[in-house]
Amino acid sequence: xxxxxxxxxxxxxxxxxxxxxxxxxxxxxxxxxxxxxxxxxxxxxxxxxxxxxxxxxxxxxxxxxxxxxxxxxxxxxxxxxxxxxxxxxxxxxxxxxxxxxxxxxxxxxxxxxxxxxxxxxxxxxxxxxxxxxxxxxxxxxxxxxxxxxxxxxxxxxxxxxxxxxxxxxxxxxxxxxxxxxxxxxxxxxxxxxxxxxxxxxxxxxxxxxxxxxxxxxxxxxxxxxxxxxxxxxxxxxxxxxxxxxxxxxxxxxxxxxxxxxxxxxxxxxxxxxxxxxxxxxxxxxxxxxxxxxxxxxxxxxxxxxxxxxxxxxxxxxxxxxxxxxxxxxxxxxxxxxxxxxxxxxxxxxxxxxxxxx
Length: 357
Ligand SMILES: Nc1nc2c(ncn2[C@@H]2O[C@H](COP(=O)(O)OP(=O)(O)OP(=O)(O)O)[C@@H](O)[C@H]2O)c(=O)[nH]1
Ligand SMILES: [Mg+2]
Known about the structure:
Number of strands: 9
CATH topology of the largest domain: Spore Coat Polysaccharide Biosynthesis Protein SpsA, Chain A
Region (Disordered): 55-78
CATH superfamily of the largest domain: Spore Coat Polysaccharide Biosynthesis Protein SpsA, Chain A
Protein name: Glycosyltransferase family 2 protein
Transmembrane segments: 284-307, 319-343
Number of helices: 12
Organism: Natrarchaeobius halalkaliphilus
Bound molecules: guanosine-5'-triphosphate, magnesium ion
Keywords: Membrane, Transferase, Transmembrane, Transmembrane helix
Oligomer: single chain
């Protein structure tokens, strides 16, 4: 228990032999349940998990088992068992560690989703996510839990970009990819002050987890970005907690040239869904129309400019009037979009907080 709240930690693990054991053994004593999800590793990750769970359970021997309240959230079923049972085998807990094995490799987001489903069933007050490669400093976990326990936020996440010395620790190619996705996620999610949206060090309240629809979570690497959009539509408060990143001996397996386009496409779909759900269906705000009008006007302006160039070089028509009209349309469209962004920013302004050192 942490300040009278039961705490679960989801640890996704894929080929993390040599790292995962330390993550489990170093889990703070106040954590009640650890859901380690082995994503069909081909190395000794699973054996390491069981061994570390036994060591951890011996260390915590004598502590009374946590009194779990049963979840008030029924998990979706299709007649063949729960979503959780269809995707993974949940083994008996060894002390506070519940080892879970995927039936097939489902990726980092897929492993988080499985862990979230297990945490929801257990009805834990707060569920954190900690990677199995040791990149997250566990002494910082309480800083993610505090905003939720204090009821200042429903979701909190690490932010490795707030201070120059933290940013400096990030390799350049990652920093560029992160900056692009930070900007796109601001637009898509409506959390305009939130940075470093790919940060997998997070904590979420039971209520928020029950609300966001875990069954439909995106399973590729952009799962954190996807979650932010869903949190925004549901009016959840987000805390961005400044913290350093730890880069050690682990090997990066992210292919940024695939990652950035894939996540960008998902964010675009999510953005359109958010506008529709938040501003047209659940409530109404003209900003959704401003966005559409702005995009349409810019589109017409751009087409007009292409025609202008064609007319100039193929038909030798004069350039000036057509160019001026196209530019005017692009400017008007940009004004509509800026206005929409300002309104959108205002809408979620009170739902965002930054936690500094
Ligand atoms: N690469 C990879 N990781 C997975 C997969 N399934 C679960 N994971 C786990 O998801 C977590 C995050 O994956 P990482 O590859 O470390 O992603 P990252 O931390 O954003 O990127 P790095 O900075 O390269 O470590 C780790 O704990 C992995 O073990 C998978 O299919 N592939
Ligand atoms: Mg990692």
